[in-house]
Design goal:
Length: about 300
Amino acid sequence: MHRFAGIYTPLATPFAADGSLDAQGLARNVDKYLRSPLTGLVVLGSNGEAPQLEEHEADLAIKTVRDAMPKDRPLLAGTGRESTAATIAATERAARLGVDAVLVRTPSFYKGQMTTDAFVKHYTQVADRSPVPVLLYNVTMYTGVNLLPEAIGILSKHPNIVGIKETNSEMVQFGEYLARAADGFTVLAGSGATYFSALMLGAHGAILAVAGVAPDLCVQIVSAVREGRIDDARKMNRQLAPLSKLVGATYGVPGLKAALTLLGFDGGLPRPPLQPVEQQAVDVIREQLRELGLFEAIPAR
């Protein structure tokens, strides 16, 4: 049984005019997502600007989202830090605040020393101490390090390590993860660019930024694949691809926040050093949202 299979979106973190975390805006966004077909939500992911938040802000974000969510919708929280001790501390705090599982990115500052052995020891110590299940998080585009399939073969046997979010676009590695993982280990796609390919390889779901702006379409794609309607899934994936690229590789977090704002969510500005996108980018994003009919699809506030 793949307990955390399904489609999730990483929540953007809205900031108030004075730059502080906008808890009310975050709660309003959660309320809207609860009316979507998404399996659950991720707070403090890369798209939540987690590295930009202070520890007290991270805890406030988790508490805000958990308070706004019913217990039957899974909540994952990013708790990766550079040291093992800090990761354990953040994980224990997130568990106390009621998350269902934690998503732990690879430490990466000392890149040359981040070997498979170092990762296995780090994650084993975190999982041994974590009161909730642990999902690994491999995001080489940000970290510059890569969690190899060999590590997955070892870590997936740990009773408290239940899955991985794989954001890399290397489909050979994705297939290796699926092949080497222990039974019941959940492998989630982490990139809109590889979403369809990953599903075809057997991914158990995904955590996608674009699912925050086009949740219905993202869920329809996985449903079509599971029902064997591959041509339908491929066609929908082609429709989704331009928007996915805009809020991902092209404009990143600032693009995602612009898209959310256009759709009536509390998107707001990114936290410096990230800069908001230019008006030209906003226009391109708006056109793509209109093309997908998303202005009609979002429920009113």
